[in-house]
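User: Hi! I'm working on a homework problem where we have to compare a predicted structure to a textbook description. Could you give me the structure for the chain below?
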Amino acid sequence: MKNIKNKKLAGMIMAASILIMGITLSGCLGGEGTILRTTGATFPQYQIQKWIDVYHESHPDVKIEYEGGGSGHGQDAFLNGLTQIGRSDPPVKEDTWNKFLGTGDQPLQFPEVVGAVVISYNVPGVSNLNLSKDAIVGIFIGDIEYWDNSIIKQSNPGVNLPHNKIIVIHRSDSSGTTSIFTTYLSVISDEWANKVGAGKTVEWPADSMGRGLAGKGNPGVVATLKQTDYGICYTELSFAIEENLPTASIENENGEYIKPTDQTIQAAVAGVKSYIPSPTEGYTEN
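Assistant: Happy to help. Predicted structure tokens:
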């Protein structure tokens, strides 16, 4: 393991962006009323579905169809006019925003839901786990093979970590959650940035080592983790809570281990909210 960066991080926070093309919001009018389609990120799925249910109670003539498929699918469907509302964990990149503008319509993009990407695990007998930056990069880049590796043990005194191989579980689809997590890894580690990089899809080193599994969407990832002893994954916090899965405490810039809570998420958001552009401005790199 080498060159772990000690940069100031807001944490693995995602603010799910919502994409709206103004002229399409009237939806599709049919014999049963208005139908709106929203497509993309699975990260805000639980919250969006609750909002849909509440809205439908007072507007029974409006049907809102929620299709997941991941952030990449949401951006593509929005660009091709297949959905009225696109959803993406990270904001769209500048070249994609320019493609939206190229359709002749004015898209709107703004944060809708804020949440956290967390590291969840399935290690029998282990309910609390601290992961340093070295440990996180080492696990996901494949250098740390067993749960009782000395780098993991160093941050977990008194925890009985087993000598079992770590199974890395990641997304199989084009995913904003993956983009958030791999961006975080790229920020804290030059080695990760140079060997793997960041994006909605990446080549996961654990796959070539025979220790990688993939799931579609956040639901697929947590379902795979529940079925895989000694597995580890990244996912949005609500999915870990819904499936009663433990989450690791992550080392911050001060060497403290932070658990994802309402308070820690709010503190991270406070550090980045001033950088949010206006809905019509789009997004520029960095």
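For your comparison, note the following. Residues 14 and 115 are 5 Å apart (CA to CA). DSSP finds eleven helices and twelve strands in the chain. Good luck with the assignment!
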